[in-house]
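dude i think i finally got it to work??
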Amino acid sequence: MLIVAGTGFTGLAEPAFASASRCEYSGRPVDRCVYVNGSGLKVNYIDASITFVTGQYLEIEVWGDGIYYRGHGDQGAPSDQAKKRLDINRNLADRSWVYVTGRWTDGSQIQPPACVQIRS
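look at this
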């Protein structure tokens, strides 16, 4: 049976049969969320978001098995968010991870990232 499991560094696995999501809520300054849409190892798309105090200048970062995006996200997001949808439409490696976090202007990464594990 193929599953996608959502988990964080501090939480327990939350298996799902089709898609999974995980958020890291640290309160302000930055909340991080990842949603993986797919079934088993097949990932259709990834929705990533970070929410922060309006006026901060942050980049959203998404990475995983052959996936990398760092930037300001898609147009039309509210002033306190950066959102990015990545169309994947392929299998990811078994037991690989998809991560989402934010980066400050100095390049430092906000820890821990939100993450979902891809499993078969």
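The longest strand covers residues 42-52.
im so relieved honestly
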